[in-house]
């Protein structure tokens, strides 16, 4: 699975005025970093409610911007959260930051 599905980004870019697309992409990069920090903090503090909230938001945001690998990892963790599998959800969430760093690097080339 690619880090970024550039066809998804191209479709999004084609649907939006360029300035809006650029603003949304910048917002995704900014908020994504903040979300990853919140996930890390939730893991450190074992705060399941925050983890579940942040992971859920990460799924759709990542998919919207073609970050398919990140979306898949977040979706897996989200499913564990929904099932109440706390230990497994925290463990799965630990894979989010490395995936996010790849997304960030790829989108900033």
- Describe the global form: elongated
- The average pLDDT is 96
Determine the structural class based on helices, strands and strand pairing: mainly alpha
Which percent range fits the helix content? over 70%
Spell the H/E element sequence: HHHHHH
Total DSSP E strands: 0
Largest sheet: none
Cα-to-Cα separation, first versus last residue: 19 Å
Low-confidence stretches: none
Q: Count up the helices.
A: 6
**Hey, roughly how much beta strand do the residues contain?**
under 5%
Radius of gyration: 14 Å
List the helices and strands and how they pair.
Elements: H1 6-15, H2 18-45, H3 48-64, H4 68-82, H5 86-93, H6 96-107
Helix pairs in contact: 2-3, 2-6, 3-4, 3-5, 4-5, 4-6
Explain this structure.
- The chain has 6 helices and no strands.
- By secondary structure, it is mainly alpha-helical.
- Helix 3 packs antiparallel against helix 4 (68-82), helix 3 crosses helix 5 (86-93) and helix 4 (68-82) packs antiparallel against helix 6 (96-107).
- It is elongated and about 40 Å long.
């Amino acid at each position: 699975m690619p880090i970024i599905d550039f066809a998804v980004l191209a479709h999004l870019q084609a649907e939006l005025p360029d300035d809006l697309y650029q603003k949304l992409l910048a917002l995704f990069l900014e908020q994504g970093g903040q979300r990853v920090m919140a996930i890390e903090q939730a893991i450190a503090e074992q705060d399941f409610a925050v983890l579940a909230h942040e992971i859920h938001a990460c799924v759709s945001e990542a998919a919207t911007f073609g970050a398919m690998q990140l979306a898949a990892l977040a979706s897996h963790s989200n499913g564990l959260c929904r099932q109440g599998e706390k230990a497994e959800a925290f463990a799965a969430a630990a894979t989010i930051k490395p995936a996010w760093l790849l997304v960030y690097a790829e989108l900033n080339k």
